[in-house]
Amino acid sequence: MSAAGAPEPIARLIQEFARLPGIGPRSAQRLAYHVLRAPEDEALALARALGDVKRRIVFCGACFNITEDDPCALCADEQRDRALICVVEEPLDVLVMERTGGYRGLYHVLHGALSPIEGVGPDQLRVRELAGRVEGGGVTEVIMATNPSLEGEATSMYLQRLLQPLGVRVTRLARGLPSGADIEYMDDLTLARALEGRQEL
Amino acid sequence: MSAAGAPEPIARLIQEFARLPGIGPRSAQRLAYHVLRAPEDEALALARALGDVKRRIVFCGACFNITEDDPCALCADEQRDRALICVVEEPLDVLVMERTGGYRGLYHVLHGALSPIEGVGPDQLRVRELAGRVEGGGVTEVIMATNPSLEGEATSMYLQRLLQPLGVRVTRLARGLPSGADIEYMDDLTLARALEGRQEL
User: Fold this and answer.
1) What's the confidence (pLDDT) of residue A2?
2) Inter-chain contact B17–A95, Cβ cutoff 8 Å?
């Protein structure tokens, strides 16, 4: 029995679950006891999936999205418009953009955003590789789809200053009211941005 | 790429995380992408902990608590009072009771509570084994520490009727106000129970 009183394998599983983001000690305990009761298959399927992600996932050498094959399916797709690059912070953002079905260009995954406080500078992100793709030619527009946060905005400003001299158009996603929103509950900054960017009806 | 657009190992990991209780599709996605970014050690430590729980944990043949050794450390402890059995629904409840430091008897883990709706009858719980321990002699009191829920109360009533004829004292944990509670926010049933069980000052 460990200090907490649970048998060692359970205490260790609780500890490992608690290292995951958003999982507190209580949830970790609940998850570990669930695993204990669950059929063996289910626990081992999760264990195997964890290992497979680490073994089989690589980064695409062109856009740095996650993939099983390099280049990734998006970069390898001849139907996509190679003159457009959409810059995102994380691989998950690519999925979300693709889900809209409204974009037919390529991507570039930075793997983060500039954050001097957390020690993330351009060298910690895939910035040099992005500049390399633009310098390589054939790219007419780079669309910034970084998060509308302090770090995301700073990253997009930095990249704009880096890329514009290379003779490419640099744009970013529109700011405004999210659809379905209630103006009464919108924050000041979103409203101010929506007002600045108001459009003719 | 799977239907959701993520590479197959990621899609599968998201799916496996989403099978855990209290983890919705969004959290599962967040967890999977966290694992992707996390050091390989961390992901494999969780995978190993999952396997170890399934391989190394058994049920104690006496009290049915989870343990690495049978009998468990509590049942094997000569210092504990063998005349007292505290009946709980789940192994986690044993830990919580032990944390209070106020109990020195043995335990019996039912592994659930009676619930006709979910098809849980006495045969699905460790009820026969509990009766066997009482019939075996030496037990003077059985303390019901099932949850103060509909199922827990029904289970404790059922066990009381089963065990009392065997000549043993059957008690249950007190009902009343939880310490630190605000009467203003107490539910009616808790207040009614606290009033019924009021004590002399």
Assistant:
1) 41
2) no
Q: Are strands B58-59 and B66-67 parallel, antiparallel or unpaired?
A: antiparallel
Is 3.40.1440.10 the CATH classification of the domain at B62-200?
A: no
Contact yes or no for B48 and A47 at CB 8 A: yes
Query: 47-86 in B: which are within 8 Å (CB) of A?
Result: 47-57, 66-68, 73
Note the ipTM here. 0.73
Instruction: Name the helix (H) or strand (E) containing B192.
Output: helix B188-196
Distance of CA A71 to the CA centre of its chain: 18
Instruction: State the Cα angle at A23 between A20 and A24, rounded to 5°.
Output: 125
CATH of domain B8-56: 1.10.8.420
Q: Which of residues 7-36 of B touch A (CB under 8 A)?
A: 7-10, 12-13, 15-17, 19-23, 27, 29-36
In sequence order, the 6+-apart residues with CB closer than 8 A to the CB of B115 are B151
Per-residue pLDDT of chain A (201 residues; tens, 9 = 90+): 343 578 889 999 999 999 999 999 989 998 998 998 888 899 999 999 999 998 899 999 999 999 999 999 999 999 999 999 999 999 989 988 888 888 999 999 999 999 999 899 999 999 999 999 999 999 999 999 999 889 999 999 999 999 999 999 999 888 888 888 788 888 888 888 888 888 777
Show me where the domains of chain A are located.
8-56, 62-200
Q: Which residues of B touch A19 (CB under 8 A)?
A: 42, 46
